[in-house]
Write a structure and sequence with these properties.
heterodimer; A: mainly alpha; ABC transporter involved in vitamin B12 uptake, BtuC; two-stranded antiparallel ribbon; 2 strands; B: alpha/beta; Rossmann fold; 2 domains; five-stranded parallel sheet; four-stranded parallel sheet
Chain lengths: ~290, ~425
């Protein structure tokens, strides 16, 4: 029995890795711009569709790199054209805009690629499983874990070890003071939005071979992503990382003991966390959100 | 790409209804003009509207069954266009009013709207068993004929049956017994251990009940049954459990996108236990791709069927949309044809006359080798089904060519009742 539980916990960590990539982008966009990006799932879907097309030309490796870049460029375009107008307005407007954007993107996917799912298989080079003792791991999932880890680490370095990161972190705490110091936040806002939706696109690429590519995939993933951000605490980098892993593990263990509650488990976890820590696991006090 | 785009647009949600409406408006205008020229009589417009036969179509076009629903609607439109091109019924055009039923609550609202506001003569469609149940109740109260084209739950034909509801779609027992009869012939059931994954809603529970019953009656052992919430993105935790349970077979009672996701991830882990399932819809299997598929499955209808009418339907569907029809398209197409034939032969849209016509044992061309009739006591369409085998990848003609048809079940000389639930298994008392 212990072995079964350990197996599910490790598997849960693998599943969680991919939630982290999604939730991190959402959290960053909200922290800096104050925009609740309801189109985050839609960008995730776009990432999967782009990857479906790109892998035909370059193979899967190319898709992992190029598709998130394309999604990020699309994101910058939308941010420059529309979203930047909402940063200083009532947050409700940004929320409504991204909600409409999500619907528009999903319907566009239907118009262009059709309503049915597209067959997108695991690339031949990543097929197969690895046996460690009696535990089984698929090479593909281990690759997803590796890519996620690189993405998370890259984001951390960017935010904590670069001048750009310093502006972003300062802007997150006190945008007015940053402006007063003569630093324009506009480029940082655009870059963070691009980075955030690019991460969503990356998660989409990785999930395509696992869960299929279909127009509604973005809507389905959006709620769990929000749950991870809320559990982790707004604005907290490591909070999101811990929450993502926790959600994956709790879900896996629930499947082992009581499968009907598998999807409910993350919500129960959220309720428990919020009861004891209303700002989430590692959420800090943010003047502008209080 | 542009051809594909325009195709998609031509069958976008609003168009079938609006095409129908446009025709009706044109016709109304023409008749109105003629009558005004003749005698300046006002009620002409009212008469012209009453002159079309309105049929309501309800099916989920979004959500986890949305992909199937889109095919269903396309096929219904194709059938109604054929009927209208042939001059309509009794000289009257058929007007198709289509709605997206999304979930049971929306299905009820839209069914009521179609019946009360739009005054449709009959209803057809649906895939979700819970929604079909709700529509069946609304239609039963309003005494309107409703043909279910895609909901499988046995209870719809049993404890929830009603006089005005008919079923073109096969029930869960039919699917289970089709593959079960074949498995029994191959001696795969007796003494074998089965592990179940079951979708956690009406359809899944119902399917688990009938399939586990069939397997146990024939000497199989149920090793475990995990309930899975719909729309699960990840099955790895379940697959690890299956791996540790070491069954002889894995039996899935899943539908729609869930089927696709599971097939892909099961293949990812490369477990050696063969897969079988309580139902098979072609669309999720197409989406999973040939690399993720293996084994033998059951099919209500598959586009490689060589019956001439079936070949003609497939050709026409491909001609119009650019890809072959699936089993849901077949269901909606056949249901629309059955309904229009019934109205034409009963010479009425009166519900009671239609019910009588169906119950009298009228037979219908359902694009299969044998004709179909509705069973009198539960209104299930008696028909043959098929055992299909996943195709050798090297022999595929295109990405839709995923199965070879192995045999019809019941066999050519066997009674169609063979795969049906008996009256004792699924009692139905019609009010």
């Amino acid at each position: 029995m212990t072995a079964l539980v350990i197996e599910q916990i490790i598997n849960g960590l693998l599943v969680g890795a991919y939630y982290i990539v999604l939730a991190l982008g959402l959290s960053m966009i909200f922290s800096l711009g104050g925009v609740v990006n309801l189109a985050h799932g839609a960008f995730y879907a776009v990432g999967a569709y782009f990857a479906y097309e790109i892998q035909k030309l370059t193979g899967f490796g190319g898709a992992v790199v190029l598709s998130p870049v394309c999604v990020a460029l699309l994101g910058v375009g939308i941010e420059r054209a529309f979203l930047q107008r909402f940063y200083r307005e009532d947050p409700m407007l940004g929320l409504l805009f991204t909600f409409g954007l999500a619907l528009t993107i999903e319907q566009s996917l239907r118009l262009i690629w059709g309503t049915t799912g597209l067959p997108f298989s695991i690339p031949d080079s990543l097929r197969g499983t690895l046996l460690v003792g009696d535990f089984i791991y698929s090479y593909y999932r281990l690759t997803v874990l590796g890519v996620s880890a690189v993405a998370v680490l890259g984001c951390w370095l960017l935010l904590n070890k670069t001048a750009f990161g310093m502006i972003v972190r300062a802007g997150t705490r006190d945008a007015e003071m940053v402006r007063a110091l003569g630093i324009s936040l506009r480029p940082a806002l655009a870059a963070v939005f691009a980075l955030g939706v690019g991460l969503a696109g990356l998660a989409g690429v990785m999930s395509g071979p696992l869960a299929g590519v279909q127009p509604a995939m973005g809507t389905e993933i959006l709620t769990p992503t929000f749950v991870v951000v809320v559990i982790g605490g707004l604005g907290s980098f490591w909070g999101v990382v811990v929450a993502g892993l926790l959600v994956g593990v709790v879900r896996g263990v629930t499947v082992l003991f009581y499968p009907p509650a598998a999807e409910a488990s993350m919500y129960i976890l959220m309720i428990l966390v919020l009861l004891f820590r209303p700002r989430g696991l590692m959420g800090e006090r943010f003047e502008k959100f209080e | 790409m542009s051809a594909h785009k325009s195709r998609t647009r031509s069958i976008s949600p609003a168009s079938p209804a609006s095409t129908g409406r446009r025709d009706a408006i044109k016709k109304t205008a023409a008749m109105g003009a003629a009558v005004v020229a003749g005698s300046l009589c006002f009620p002409a417009i009212v008469r012209a509207q009453a002159d079309t036969i309105k049929i309501g179509h309800l099916t989920p076009r979004t959500g986890f069954l949305g992909q199937l629903g889109q095919y269903g609607l396309r096929a219904t439109t194709l059938a109604i266009d054929e009927v209208n091109a042939a001059g309509g019924i009794m000289g009257r055009k058929v007007d198709l009013l289509a709605e997206d039923s999304v979930n049971p609550a929306t299905a009820v609202t839209k069914a009521q709207k179609l019946i009360e506001r739009d005054k449709v003569a009959c209803l057809l469609g649906e895939i979700n068993s819970a929604s079909a149940l709700a529509i069946g109740e609304v239609a039963g109260k309003a005494r309107i004929v409703y043909i279910n084209t895609g909901a499988n739950s046995d209870a719809l034909r049993g404890s929830n049956c009603n006089r005005y509801m008919f079923h073109v779609e096969g029930c869960n027992t039919m699917y289970t017994k089709t593959i079960g009869t074949w498995q029994k012939e191959q001696n795969l059931i007796k003494g074998a251990k089965w592990y179940f994954l079951t979708a956690d809603y009406a359809f899944g529970h119902d399917l688990y009940k009938v399939s586990s019953r069939f397997l146990q009656e024939n000497g199989g052992v149920i090793l475990g049954n995990d309930l899975v919430p719909t729309n699960s993105p990840d099955y790895s935790a379940y697959i690890l459990k299956i791996r540790n349970a070491k069954p002889d077979f894995v039996y899935i009672c899943l539908a729609g996108v869930d089927q696709t996701t599971f097939l892909k991830q099961y293949k990812e882990y490369g477990l050696s236990f063969p897969l079988a399932g309580g139902v098979m819809d072609t669309i999720p299997f197409w989406a999973a791709g040939i690399d993720s598929l293996s084994g033998h499955w059951q099919s209500l209808w598959y586009h490689a069927l060589t019956v001439p009418q079936s070949v003609a339907f497939t050709k026409k569907f491909i001609g119009q949309f650019g890809y072959p029809p699936d089993n849901q398209a077949w269901g909606d197409y056949v249901a629309a044809k059955i309904l229009t034939q019934a109205i034409a032969e009963a010479k009425s849209t009166d519900s009671l006359k239609l019910v009588e016509y169906f119950e009298k044992g009228a037979s219908f061309d359902i694009l299969k080798a044998r004709k179909g009739t509705f069973r009198k006591w539960d209104h299930q369409l008696l028909q043959e089904m098929y055992v299909v085998k996943v195709k050798d990848k090297a022999k595929m003609k295109d990405k839709w060519d995923i199965f070879d048809i192995v045999q019809a079940v019941p066999g050519t000389n066997q009674d169609l009742e063979l795969i049906q639930p008996t009256q004792a298994e699924n009692p139905c008392k019609m009010a």
